Sequence to fold (187 residues):
Amino acid sequence: MSLDSPAANAAFAKQIGVTFPLLSDMNKKMLKSYGILKGYNLHDDTFEWALRANIVIDKQGVIQFVEEGDSAVDPNTALTMCTTLHKKEPAK
Amino acid sequence: MVGSKLLLALIFRTGWEISMKRALAIGLLAAAALAAAPAAPQAEKSEVAKMTLKVGDTAPDFTLLSDGWKTVKLSDYRGKKNVFLAVYVLAFTGG
Fold:
């Protein structure tokens, strides 16, 4: 998900052929409630951008993994978490 | 006469010195206040930027627009699928 418009996301999705939805938070509501919006001061004004983050939420809606900033560039740790969660399920 | 003039000069001088000291003190105070003022909002900003969520917290529900202009709710996935949320800045740049 990103701050980009659905139109920009659609173009990007087509370009790279993704199989998952690219989500857009244009009104920044979700980013605000998750606390991943960062203000940058530029030309006497403040501009808000999203921080890079990977979040894994389980079926019950509980956050299982959080990673932000530069470490979130590599999604492998989050993916491993997803696989672990997926494997756990049949046992339940 | 010469003595009184000297005394006057001395009083004038010490008086000026005191006022200079006072002015310097006021100036220093003002400078300190000016230096402290911009520091406060900056500290606030870094706190805002810090992610507020922790592992074990219930993820706040959200409604986002998909690339097909449809709404996607986190609660739609509850009980059905695990969700991997990747937040990317300017995703299309590949950076």
About this structure: The first helix of chain B runs from residue 2 to 49.
